[in-house]
Specification:
Largest sheet: none
Radius of gyration: 26 Å
Shape: extended
Number of strands: 0
Structural class: mainly alpha
Number of helices: 4
Strand content: under 5%
Amino acid sequence: MTPSGYFLTHLWLVPLFPLITAALMLIIGRRLPKAAVSFLCVGSVFLSFLHATGAVLGLRAAPPGNRVFQLILFEWITPGVMPSSTRSPPSWSSSSPASASSFMSTPSAI
């Protein structure tokens, strides 16, 4: 069973709160009193903290084997079916010409 809950499904709001507040401060920040600016800026970070804490507590409530949450909002690139490779991976043995021992030399005077 995958953990779920409001905070986990709305985890995308964590960076959005300070981002929206920063945009508001850019647009109307000079017209607001300093106390209002401070309240909005600190409040948005605190709201993000509460959401992140709720998500962590939601994961901790799940059994240890199920503490994984994945929410795919969209797929950026869909590769399709990937062909399987029959080649073996390259060997990184020390017998290669550019091994680490070939780069070790004694310093010479210039």
